[in-house]
Amino acid sequence: MKRLAIIGGTGIDELEGLQIIGSHALDTPYGAPSRAVQEGSLAGNQVFFLQRHGSPKAIPPHLINYRANLWALHSLGATDIVAINAVGGIAPDMGSGVLVIPDQVIDYTWGREHTIDDGSGSGQLQHIDFTEPYDRDLRQALIAQAQSAGIVFQDGAVHGVTQGPRLETAAEVRRMTQDGCDVVGMTGMPEAALAREMGLAYASLCMVVNPAAGLGDEPLTLEMMREALEREAAVVRDLLQRLVCADYCA
Ligand code: HPA
Q1: Which of 45, 185, 193, 217 has its Cα between 20 and 30 A from that of 66?
Q2: Which of the listed residues 167, 176, 221, 226 should we mutate to test ligand 1's pocket, taking the one with most ligand atoms within 8 A of CB?
Q3: In this model, does residue 45 exceed pLDDT 80?
Q4: Which domains, ranges and CATH numbers included, belong to the chain?
Q5: How far is the CA of 185 from the centre of ligand 1 (A)?
């Protein structure tokens, strides 16, 4: 049976409408996850929820224990993960307020624990196929629900993931444009690759909350990002609820 987990990003601390049934404070071979995993019912259907930045103190993107987070969700029985990521917009059609379902990733992060392969396994080399970093079926399920609800979104984008926690320089964003990135965030990797290693179906829902560095008229502020997040959160919630009702019904 398929079971959905949602990983919340900046601005999505709780999943509104989620009736909490339980809270799982787990330890994993990689240490503690960002926070206890909430188990709940969304429109009558079982869903897990984990805020990747933890709470009440926010864990910055480069210090998130991505391995522990995914391991915890996996061990609770989640099979599918929808990750919510706040991003800056790079491509001209990725303005603030746009909802994006990316289909590709470029990983600019470094120094993060990016694999569960510590060499002690079967002795066989493991090379996961990451040609398509997001699960095709889960992406299509999100797209189908967005389309049927008339939600405006971008189907397909290259999600560049930087190390943070600082934002990019204008020159870095110019280089990312040349590389083909459409949006830029800090939390998409190694999460997507670890999910693939653990056999979890994984897709990302990106919310554009600012123009990337050097592309807007105003200085980048957290306030600007928060305002955009608040405006978009309702649409994301609606989409997730539709997905759960259509594809993960009890
Ligand atoms: N860059 C990187 N990460 C982000 C941004 C950005 O402009 N906006 C939100 N997360």
Answers
A1: 45
A2: 167
A3: yes
A4: 4-109+133-236 (3.40.50.1580)
A5: 5
